[in-house]
């Protein structure tokens, strides 16, 4: 036996502890049945009858228990191996921590606490998960994602998130640590697959209750069988009744249930999806509506100023200069690209001095504008066209007649228009161009095939939104949405009974990510987004939602299929064993005894053997999962009911006949 196999057996035996079994009522009943049979063994030998039978049943039931706990142990060990591979690099990391007075001290990464700031330079490994608070750098994330193409991460943007173990390729960064040791996303994910801290998901709980109730029903069935049997003159032994009970209760699904859940979690991990709960993985399988923001999710998110379009009767230069001045202190990529374009278009660098001592008005998703108030009293603003039009009107100005046409012209190509104003005067519009991600349209097609409606919500104007929506192929879009509007939309969808997924990366996405049933944050996103979400994609690929949906569906369908199979099996066993027990004394029942089994003893033994062996036989299936090709959930359900329901009903007959034939010579 290899060390790993030895550990597995150890884990399986540990699973027999009463505290562990108490989590699983079906297996608890099997354990009690096993004890009863062991107790009956010496009694049987003393009485000279049934001792060997009691011992055989006891051992078979013990095997049943070990197969069930073994399935869970196997799933756990695979999950841990998966998570461990992701976490490996972290242990030996060191860090340079910034103290309050700006000094740097060398510490082990394990000493870092949430809120600590560390400095990392080109060539070094990032010591902890966190958010870049200063600087921008290209980073190699292959330790986490397996993908070695460098990615850009930057303070103050929706791409400020960094992970422990990834390598800084250029520049110097200051990073704020986001988790205490042992509390990182991966640590939490590992805890989720480990027995001690694993919580049942709501639907696992519901299924467990159902299985417990079925167990109770069958207990009553078996107990009432005693007087009925004695009435027709059939002798029932305790061991026989225990064996019958165990065959009837849903041991197969009861034994495989935890393994199915854990396998779902490790499949998510294999896809570089870190779930914060088992529930998140499950919910992903039932999503009805997916909300996505536009910039950075559907588009590459690299919005760059490409054009200044002045209103009639406004010259080009004042538009360029105001755009420049209002963006000098704007740290957003949009703001900086406006400064770059203005410089390329010949802005006088001396002009910057006008902004000395100015008050900067930062962009917010709420106001959708930004700007500066100069010491000269001039107020310069830029922002979403309707926000700027409203601002100009509030200053007592008039919106020029050709403004709307100008905005529409820029928007039709899918560019984002940013209007520019100085006090009462609306000067013109800046075009911010962005590129739709390659292959995103196919992803939306796939989602539609899975029965999921996609809705793009953007802060951008309706024309730009519709242009992008049409090209990307989303089902619906909502433009000029504030964070509140996003939240309200999620609540509306939820109120009408739909399960909503939200993909996002920005701090302004955080409330929506928290409200959604499935909030999928990009690992590159801000800490606020990663914290609010219940799933994080290490690859920072919004299209990953499709994988999440598939993994979730696979989990639900696998569980459904094995439940159907298990219950159908139990029903079949009932019709195999009962006639065998009664056929001799009640000739009318003989007709039902189509199986013509050797003897009641061999019939019950054959059923118990089948009942035990079906668990390991189904372990690979439970761990790998049912394949879910693109199909709606109802379609999948129908197909599975047919295969696993009918299959589950039929299989026990030939198998029990086979075991009966093999056992017959020995009883
Ligand atoms: N730095 C900025 N200064 C002024 N206005 C801006 C700035 N950045 C964006 N805007 C304007 O505010 C609008 C909303 O921007 P925001 O990034 O919040 O959109 P969003 O809701 O995140 O949607 P999406 O990311 O899908 O475009 C933009 O469409 C643009 O008109
Ligand atoms: K059973
Ligand atoms: Mg955004």
From TrEMBL:
It catalyses: K(+)(out) + ATP + H2O = K(+)(in) + ADP + phosphate + H(+). InterPro entries: ATPase_P-typ_cyto_dom_N, ATPase_P-typ_P_site, ATPase_P-typ_TM_dom_sf, ATPase_P-typ_transduc_dom_A_sf, ATPase_P-type_domA, HAD-like_sf, HAD_sf, P-type_ATPase_bsu_IA. ATP binds at residues 330, 334, 363-370, 382. Keywords: ATP-binding, Cell membrane, Ion transport, Magnesium, Membrane, Metal-binding, Nucleotide-binding, Phosphoprotein, Potassium, Potassium transport, Translocase, Transmembrane, Transmembrane helix, Transport. SUPFAM superfamilies: Calcium ATPase, transduction domain A, Calcium ATPase, transmembrane domain M, HAD-like. It comes from the Bacteria. Mg(2+) binds at residues 505, 509. The keyword Secreted does not apply. Residues 94-194 form the P-type ATPase A domain. The chain crosses the membrane at residues 21-45, 51-71, 205-226, 238-260, 571-590, 602-621, 641-659. Pfam families: E1-E2_ATPase, Hydrolase. The keyword Transport applies. It is an enzyme of class 7 (translocase). Its main location: membrane. It is found in: Cell membrane; Membrane. It is a multi-pass membrane protein. The active site is at residue 293. Its EC number is 7.2.2.6. Part of the high-affinity ATP-driven potassium transport (or Kdp) system, which catalyzes the hydrolysis of ATP coupled with the electrogenic transport of potassium into the cytoplasm. This subunit is responsible for energy coupling to the transport system and for the release of the potassium ions to the cytoplasm. Belongs to the cation transport ATPase (P-type) (TC 3.A.3) family. Type IA subfamily. The system is composed of three essential subunits: KdpA, KdpB and KdpC. This is Potassium-transporting ATPase ATP-binding subunit. The gene is kdpB.
């Amino acid at each position: 036996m290899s060390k790993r196999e030895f550990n597995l057996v150890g884990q399986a035996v540990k699973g027999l502890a009463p505290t562990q079994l108490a989590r699983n009522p079906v297996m608890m009943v099997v354990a009690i049945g096993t004890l009863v049979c062991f107790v009956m063994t010496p009694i049987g030998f003393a009485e000279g009858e049934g001792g060997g039978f009691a011992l055989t049943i006891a051992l078979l039931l013990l095997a049943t228990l070990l197969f069930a706990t073994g399935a869970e142990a196997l799933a756990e060990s695979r999950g841990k191996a998966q998570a461990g591979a992701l976490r490996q690099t972290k242990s030996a990391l060191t860090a340079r921590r910034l103290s309050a007075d700006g000094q740097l001290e060398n510490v082990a990464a394990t000493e870092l606490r949430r809120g600590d700031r560390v400095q990392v330079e080109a060539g070094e490994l990032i010591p902890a998960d966190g958010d870049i608070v200063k600087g921008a750098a290209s980073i190699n994330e292959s330790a986490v994602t397996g993908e070695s193409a460098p990615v850009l991460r930057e303070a103050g943007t929706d791409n400020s998130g960094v992970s422990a173990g990834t390598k800084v390729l250029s520049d110097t960064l200051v990073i704020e640590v986001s988790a205490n040791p042992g509390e990182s996303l991966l640590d939490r994910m590992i805890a989720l697959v480990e027995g001690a801290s694993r919580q049942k998901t709501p639907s696992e709980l519901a299924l467990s209750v159902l299985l417990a109730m079925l167990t109770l029903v069958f207990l009553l069935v078996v107990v009432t069988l005693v007087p009925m049997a004695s009435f027709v003159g059939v002798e029932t032994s305790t061991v026989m009744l225990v064996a019958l009970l165990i065959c009837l209760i849903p041991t197969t699904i009861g034994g495989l249930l935890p393994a199915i859940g854990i396998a779902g979690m490790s499949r998510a991990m294999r896809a570089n999806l870190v779930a914060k709960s088992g529930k998140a993985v499950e919910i992903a399988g039932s999503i009805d509506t997916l909300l996505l923001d536009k910039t950075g999710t559907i588009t590459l998110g690299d919005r760059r100023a490409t054009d200044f379009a002045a209103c009639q009767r406004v010259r080009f230069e004042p538009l360029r200069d105001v755009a420049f001045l209002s963006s000098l202190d704007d740290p957003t990529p949009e703001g900086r690209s406006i400064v770059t374009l203005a410089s390329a278009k010949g802005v006088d660098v001396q002009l910057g001095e006008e902004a000395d001592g100015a008050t900067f008005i930062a962009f917010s998703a709420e106001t959708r504008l930004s700007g500066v108030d100069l010491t000269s009293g001039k107020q310069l603003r830029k922002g979403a066209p309707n926000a700027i039009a409203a601002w100009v009107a509030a200053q007592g100005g008039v919106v020029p007649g050709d403004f709307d046409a100008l905005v529409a012209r820029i928007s039709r190509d899918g560019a984002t228009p940013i209007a520019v104003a100085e006090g009462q005067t609306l000067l013109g519009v800046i075009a911010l161009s962005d590129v739709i991600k390659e292959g995103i349209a196919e992803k939306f097609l796939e989602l539609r095939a899975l029965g999921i409606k996609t809705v793009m919500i953007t802060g951008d104007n309706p024309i730009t939104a519709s242009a992008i929506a049409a090209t990307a192929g989303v089902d619906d879009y909502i433009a000029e949405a504030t964070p509140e509007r996003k939240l309200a939309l999620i609540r509306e969808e939820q109120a009408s009974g739909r399960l909503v997924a939200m993909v996002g990366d920005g701090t302004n996405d955080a409330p929506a990510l928290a409200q959604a049933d499935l909030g999928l944050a990009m690992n590159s996103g801000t800490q606020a987004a990663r914290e609010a979400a219940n799933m994080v994609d290490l690859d920072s690929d919004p299209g990953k939602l499709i994988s999440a949906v598939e993994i979730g569906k696979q989990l639900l369908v696998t569980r459904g299929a094995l439940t159907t199979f298990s219950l159908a099996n139990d029903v079949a066993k009932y019709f195999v064993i009962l006639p065998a027990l009664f056929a001799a004394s009640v000739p009318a029942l003989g007709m039902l005894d189509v199986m013509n089994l050797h003897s009641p003893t061999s019939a019950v033994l054959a059923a118990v053997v089948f009942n035990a062996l079906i668990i390991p036989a189904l372990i690979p299936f439970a761990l790998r999962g049912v394949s879910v090709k693109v199909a709606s959930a109802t379609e999948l359900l129908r197909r599975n009911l047919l295969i696993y329901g009918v299959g589950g009903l039929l299989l026990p007959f030939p198998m029990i006949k086979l075991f009966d034939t093999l056992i017959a010579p020995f009883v």
